[in-house]
Amino acid sequence: VSDSVVASRQFAQQGLNALERSNLSEAEKYCSQAVRACPSDPNARRSYADVLWAQGRTQEALEQIDTALASGVGGDVETRLRAAEMRLQAGNLDAALVDVEQVIDADPKSAEAWALRGRVMLAKGNAKQSLADMQRSLIYAPRRRDVLRQTAELYQRLGESHKALAALQELGDTYGPGEEPQDIYIAQG
């Protein structure tokens, strides 16, 4: 591994640590140094994109992700998944769908990718396909609380209350006794 990549990864990690502390100016400083240290490092660009995103600089964040993807080495699953997530949140549903489907092509058993595709399909107004994608995600990660909750909401939206109840009960089973959030019981009611 070259010295520039090592330096880039160190700066990026410092930037992400600052981001976790909500110190956005320090995070931006370190992540921009990471990109300067090694412009072709997709991790540096992805980290910088996350900082820009947290600052509300959507277009610049997407440009960093696109640069990472275009670099040839940045087409990894994690970068593509992050790109799809950003595009979904930015409202660019068609581009988000293209990205997430590329992830699924590369890793058909990615629970995260199937769940994200389900969220994209729901945003596109296709609740039935969204439900199918969420169910596919649960095949690979059956105890994901966010996906179980979304599945229950989709069943309810589609008028299948008994299946919504079963999904909520399964969600409740992911918690220890007495640790279940009240909103699960409210939704079951």
Walk me through this protein's architecture.
- This protein is mostly helical and 189 residues long.
- It is 77% helix and 0% strand.
- The protein contains 11 helices and no strands.
- α6 runs antiparallel to α7 and α10 packs antiparallel against α11.
- The longest helix has 18 residues.
- 39% of the residues are buried.
- The model has no long low-confidence stretch (mean pLDDT 94).
Would you count the extended β strands for me? 0
The main sheet comes to: none
Mean pLDDT: 94
N-to-C SSE string, H for helix and E for strand? HHHHHHHHHHH
Spans of at least 5 consecutive residues whose pLDDT stays below 50 are none
Distance between the ends:
57 Å
What proportion of the residues form beta strands (DSSP E)? under 5%
Relevant terms:
189 residues
Condensed summary:
The protein is mainly alpha-helical. It has helices at residues 3-20, 24-37, 42-54, 58-70, 77-90, 93-106, 111-123, 127-140, 145-157, 161-172, 182-188.
List the SSEs and their pairings.
Elements: H1 3-20, H2 24-37, H3 42-54, H4 58-70, H5 77-90, H6 93-106, H7 111-123, H8 127-140, H9 145-157, H10 161-172, H11 182-188
Helix pairs in contact: 1-2, 1-3, 2-3, 3-4, 4-5, 5-6, 5-7, 6-7, 7-8, 8-9, 9-10, 10-11
